[in-house]
Amino acid sequence: MNSPVIASLVPVVLFIAIGFVAGRQEWIRASAVKDLSNLVFMVLSPALLFRTMSTVHIEDLNFGPVGIYFAAFGLLYFATLAWQGFNRLAAARALANTFSNTLMIGVPLVGLVFGDAGLVTLFTLISVHSLILLTAATVVFELAAAREHAGQSNAAQPPMWRTVLGAVRNGVLHPVPLPILAGLLFAQTGLVLPPVVDKPLQLLGQALGPLALLLVGVTLVFTRVGHHFKGALRIALAKCIVHPLLLAAMAWALGLSGLPLAVMIVAASLPVGANVFLFAQRYEVAQDEVTASVAVSTMLALVTMPVVILLTTRYVV
C-alpha cells in the first residue's frame, strides 16, 4: 500500500463526513448551501486558480493527456446517445456519464495526492473542460430539443450559430476558466505578484479545499434519491468506473504514462459535476434523476477513487 496516498485520501473522506454530520445536525441549513457554494465558486476558486497559473508558462503545459481525456469523453458521450436515442433525456444522461466534479472534489483531491505539479495539469484540463464539454452539450441539447419539438410549435427557433456563440461566451466568462486564462496571461509577462497581493490569494486558495469538501458532505444531506436510485446508480457506475477505465485503456493502447496521465485518469473517476443539473433544469428533463446521480456518484466515488489513485500511482506515474 502507498501510505502517502492513503494519508492524502483520509482528509478528503474526513471533511466530507464532517460536512455530512454538520448538515444532519442542521449546523448548516439547506438555505445556506447556495451561499456557501457561491463563496467557493466566486471567491476561493478564482484566487487559487489565478495564483497557481500565474507562474506557469504555456510552453510547459502538456496538452497530450488532456486530448486523451476528451477522446474518452467523446467516445462515452456519443455511445450513450447511440444507446439511449437522440433526445433530451439521452443528452442529460450522456453529460452526466462524462462531466466530472473537477473543482469541488478534483482540486483538493489532486492537490493532496499529486501536489502543485498535479494541480497545474488539472488546471490545464479545467481551463478547457467547461468550455468544450458545455459547448458541445449545448449544441446536442438544442438539436435534440429542436428534433423533439419539430412540427409541434410554430415558434421560430434561434439560429444554431447564436446558440453556439452564447455557449462559448458563457464558457469563457466563467469564474473557473477566466482566472486560469488570466493567470496564464500574467505569467507570460514575466512579472511576479507582489507579496501584498500574493499572500491574500494564498490564504483564500488554502481555504478552498476544506470548505469545498465540507460543502460536498452538506449537499449529500439535502439530496433526495428516492425511486431514482437505479437510474442514478447506472450513471454513477458509468461516471466513476467506465469513464476512467476507458481513458486508461486508450492511454495504454498508445503507450502513455506519467503524472499528467494519472491526473487525467483520476479526473475521469470523479463523481458527476453540478453543472449537469443546470442543463437538466434548463431543458426540463431528468432533473430528479440527475440530482440523485450527483449524490449516488459522490458516495460511490468515495470507494472507487482510492482504488483508482492507488492503481495510477503504482502503474502509471
Number of domains: 1
- Classify the beta-strand content into a percent band: under 5%
Distance between the termini: 15 Å
Helix content: over 70%
CATH class group: Mainly Alpha
What is the molecular shape?
globular
For the record, the CATH architecture stands as Up-down Bundle
Structural class: mainly alpha
| CATH domain fold name | Na+/H+ antiporter like fold
Question: Keywords, please?
Answer:
Na+/H+ antiporter like fold; 317 residues; 79% helix; mainly alpha; 0% strand; 12 helices
Could you characterize the architecture of this molecule?
Helix 1 (3-24) runs antiparallel to helix 12 (287-315), helix 2 runs parallel beside helix 7 (177-188) and helix 3 (64-84) packs across helix 9 (229-253). The chain is globular. The chain is mainly alpha-helical. The model has no long low-confidence stretch (mean pLDDT 86). 46% of the residues are buried. The chain has one domain (3-149, 157-315): Up-down Bundle (Na+/H+ antiporter like fold). Helix content is 79%, strand content 0%.
Note the topology:
Layout: H1 3-24, H2 30-53, H3 64-84, H4 88-98, H5 102-149, H6 160-172, H7 177-188, H8 195-221, H9 229-253, H10 259-268, H11 275-282, H12 287-315
Helix pairs in contact: 1-5, 1-8, 1-12, 2-5, 2-7, 2-8, 3-4, 3-9, 3-10, 4-5, 4-9, 5-6, 5-7, 5-8, 5-10, 9-10, 9-12, 10-12
Summarize the structure.
By secondary structure, the protein is mostly helical.
